[in-house]
Specification:
The chain has helices at residues 9-13, 16-30, 64-78. It has 81 residues and is mainly α. The model has no long low-confidence stretch (mean pLDDT 80).
Length: 81
């Protein structure tokens, strides 16, 4: 349990309460940033990341190719206005 929240990543990424909490955290963080640095869009992944997922190496470095293959459309959507 971290920050008083219980449940798996899959359970926590879906509910509206999780989204609302993330939006609130982003809003607070944005108050300390210049407008150009602020987070405009984000998404909550619904699965756990780790070396066993093919998205990270055993030393926890990103496998950019795998991430692009799995999440390319989502990432492109975050960068469009």
């Amino acid at each position: 349990m971290r920050y008083g929240i219980e449940g798996t990543i899959q359970e926590l990424a879906g509910p509206l309460e999780a989204r609302a909490g993330a939006e609130q955290a982003v809003a607070v963080a944005n108050t300390r940033l210049k407008r150009i640095e602020q987070v405009k869009k984000f998404c909550l992944p619904g699965e756990k990341r780790g070396p066993e997922s093919d998205e990270l190496t055993p030393s926890w470095k990103l496998c950019r190719r795998e991430i692009h293959l799995k999440y390319g459309q989502i990432l492109d959507g975050l960068y469009t206005l």
